[in-house]
Specification:
Number of helices: 10
Low-confidence stretches: 1-8
Distance between the termini: 44 Å
Largest sheet: 7 strands, mixed
Bound molecules: S-adenosylmethionine
Order of helices and strands: HHHHEHEHEEHEHHHEE
Length: about 260
């Protein structure tokens, strides 16, 4: 098993890396994998605390937008510790498969999947793989989801094309990602919190040396804005793309469809 103690984490993002655009790093995938390997053990706790308890509600809303039907097969890409996969399992999907390339995150998801669940709810299964090259046949799923993952991949457009490929006719994709609040006052307060408070407290909580919680706000501010993301989804072949801001627009779910 990989050593995942905080002391094993080395710096992944330096101040100079983050002064530039982190999405342009040629070794972005490897850095992201090392970074999540370093913070996995405190990932859920940091999410709950630093979203002020909202992160699970955001995931549940993303699930509701997909209007899960009995018999739906769901792929949760960049599933991390499995919170969104578990939400789909509770919502009545027939099967849920999570994919992620960071072993430490998947191990935590697999541990969650062993918990008791209500009768009839499927147990998510997990695969260690790169979502830029999904290990599934064309038209294998009814729903594909990704939460806080599209920003972290090296080539988001390629990932969206992969999602389109593995979806069946009538399928849905939901992309949940941080976004900038439209209200300038809320944007300013949120900016102060995400740039100056959260990086300090989250880093302490995770005992992190990788720079993950300084990368986080920088990776949001340098990533595609809402409109660009919607255009990328349309470009990948999704129809009727709609966007659903949550908690004053701190995060947005983008929903798209595959034609029947
Ligand atoms: C911020 S976490 C999100 C985890 C989870 N979806 C959630 O809602 O908390 C981002 C995840 O994306 C994964 N990831 C990033 N790039 C990936 C890739 N190319 N293939 C597979 N997983 C990837 C990371 O390993 C990490 O677990």
């Amino acid at each position: 098993m990989t050593d995942r103690t905080p002391s094993s984490s080395a710096r992944v993002w330096s101040a100079a890396d983050l002064a530039a655009d982190p999405h342009r790093a040629t070794d972005k995938s490897q850095r992201i994998q090392r970074m999540f390997g370093a913070i996995a053990h405190r990932y859920d706790l940091n999410n709950r605390l630093h979203s002020l308890g909202r992160d699970q509600a955001w995931r549940r809303r993303a699930v509701r937008l997909c209007r899960v039907q009995a018999g739906d097969d769901v792929l949760d890409a960049a599933c991390g510790t499995g919170d969104l996969a578990e939400a789909f399992a509770s919502a009545g999907a027939a099967s849920v498969c999570g994919v992620d390339f960071t072993e430490q995150m998947i191990e935590l998801a697999r541990a969650k999947a062993t918990r008791n669940r209500r009768p009839g709810a499927p147990r998510p299964t997990y695969k260690l793989a790169d979502i830029m090259d999904l290990p599934f046949d064309d038209a294998s799923f009814d729903i594909v989801s990704i939460a806080f993952g599209i920003r972290n991949v090296a080539d988001p457009a390629r990932v969206l094309r992969e999602f389109r490929r593995v979806l069946r006719p009538g399928g849905r994709v939901v992309v949940l990602e941080f976004s900038q609040p439209a209200n300038p006052v809320i944007r300013m307060v949120n900016g102060l919190y995400t740039r100056h408070v959260m990086p300090v407290t989250a880093t302490l909580l995770a005992g992190d040396r990788s720079g993950a919680y300084r990368y986080l706000p920088r990776s949001v501010s340098t990533f595609a804005d809402r409109e660009t993301l919607a255009a990328m989804m349309a470009q990948a072949g999704f129809k009727d793309v709609s966007q659903h801001p949550m908690t004053f627009g701190v995060c947005t779910a983008s929903l798209g469809f595959v034609a029947c």
